[in-house]
């Protein structure tokens, strides 16, 4: 596996999305009632090598939570249903929601170009912010190069020696964009779908330009506080996880073999608006349920958010949302996310009546798609 592929693993959603659509999902075992199939899928993930799993679901029967495996390999302490964890690219749905709220308020348009808000920032090696719209940032059709695919960035932040040397360092959003600008675009604007974390780093900067406040502050006052998401935060440069939480583990290598390292502490500025958020499963379910029940966006903006483009076979991408059809015919919306030592999924049905969020505290094994199939198709 090349450094570039490993980078995609830790950038997470690109890998999670491809894993979700690479072929038919593993058929979920028939449940005898309740969430039995989901419980079995959690145990299967641990048998596959994930240290521990925590999950929570909301449906017409109420709220259910389950865990398997351990949260601390040293002490053997089990995972908790209340664990807070880094959600990686699930952050993108929060950021897209704020941009759409700003559009609803008339403070910007998704048809604005990047240059209108960030003059001259997206330029070089064929990049042209005057030809890229905010909508194209949010649905990954901008063609902007993904900074996490840069081999130097991957070496310094995703492989063992670089990670332990740089794990506490702050990288600014503009520095992340500059890394991307040193490469040619993936495509011309609007020509194709290419997942790029740079798109959402830019989206965060647009929020700041439009409001005069940090994007994390805007998410807090517009989403976190109104919904009472007590476990959700945008840590900025803080390296630790709030309690309760488990340890996070990674191989920090181009393969899924070798020693396992504790990577719990890191400076999430390397992800920024593309993936810095911390949450728990209950909060993620509350957020996606509220979004799909119309509590966060007017109808026009929600329609824009759920207008999709083909991503990869079997999945489509809206504005900060992945849409996929499961084996049993159920369609779910949400996002996958991963960052060092943490792999997460949060999905809901289109009516917001059935939601699931889960986290693996390891980034090299386990099949989150099988857990989703089990929950929505297994019983």
UniProtKB/TrEMBL annotation:
Gene Ontology MF, one: hydrolase activity
InterPro entries per the UniProt record, alphabetical: AmpC-like (IPR050491), Beta-lactam-related (IPR001466), Beta-lactam/transpept-like (IPR012338)
This protein's UniProt keywords: Hydrolase, Signal
Enzyme Commission number(s): 3.1.1.103
Residues in Beta-lactamase-related domain copies: 40-364
Signal peptide annotation: 1-27
Enzyme class: hydrolase
Keyword Translocase: no
Matches recorded under SUPFAM superfamilies: beta-lactamase/transpeptidase-like
Region (Disordered): 52-82
Record-linked PANTHER family: D-ALANYL-D-ALANINE CARBOXYPEPTIDASE, D-ALANYL-D-ALANINE-CARBOXYPEPTIDASE/ENDOPEPTIDASE AMPH
Protein name: Serine hydrolase domain-containing protein
Species in which this protein is naturally found: Streptomyces violaceorubidus
